[in-house]
Amino acid sequence: RKEVEQDPGPFNVPEGATVAFNCTYSNSASQSFFWYRQDCRKEPKLLMSVYSSGNEDGRFTAQLNRASQYISLLIRDSKLSDSATYLCVVNRGQAGTALIFGKGTTLSVSS
Amino acid sequence: NAGVTQTPKFQVLKTGQSMTLQCAQDMNHNSMYWYRQDPGMGLRLIYYSASEGTTDKGEVPNGYNVSRLNKREFSLRLESAAPSQTSVYFCASSEARGGPRPQHFGDGTRLSIL
Questions:
Q1: Where are any strands of DSSP class E within chain B?
Q2: Do A32 and B104 touch (CB under 8 A)?
Q3: Does residue A40 belong to the interface with chain B, where contact is any CB pair within 8 Å?
Q4: Do B105 and A45 touch (CB under 8 A)?
Q5: How do residues B8-65 score in pLDDT, each as one tens digit?
Q6: Which B-chain residues 32-91 have CB contacts (< 8 A) with chain A?
Q7: Which in A57, A110, B70, B78 has the greatest CB count within 10 A?
Q8: How many Cβ pairs within 8 Å bridge chains A and B?
């Protein structure tokens, strides 16, 4: 099992749609979880941290299921500007600071 | 706010040449990282420095060396460049206290080796 796995997509959705991305991770000792966004040929940027109880930031909702080692990102009311690659990120076990990046899921929102 | 600054932004080298990629952060972060990103491969960690004075190998360290010059600066050196090292290189930094924290990235160095 790969350390962090994501469906690469692409997900092609119309404006206003709701879309969900999933991610699984292999190391049960991982403690920190993030979603990053990366635009074409740009640097990754933190979208949101993922907390055990689930958390929301505007149109974005992140969920964590430690038992299943599964993370999700839900985007509501998609905008054209949401088009990007979304990276699932997990720390490398216990308190290690090194992060493992998934290969990303590509989202394309069209008008 | 500069954040993480990488230089150069673009570079073309010939096989066998050497060069150093520079990275500096102004966020007073303890930890710094070097990644490479290739199509279909995602971000792969080359080396990291958990704190000033320490460096550790990541997933793909072969062919690279690093120096944590001080708390602000973390450089990546290619001693003898090879075409397989053609990639986009990202430097990142994070605060280390309190466990793993989000990393903040520079805008990358696009390196081509002919």
A1: 4-7, 10-13, 19-25, 31-38, 42-49, 56-57, 64-68, 74-78, 87-94, 104-105, 109-113
A2: no
A3: no
A4: yes
A5: 999 999 999 999 999 999 999 999 999 999 988 889 999 999 888 899 999 899 999 9
A6: 33, 35, 40-43, 45, 48, 50, 58, 88, 90
A7: B78
A8: 52
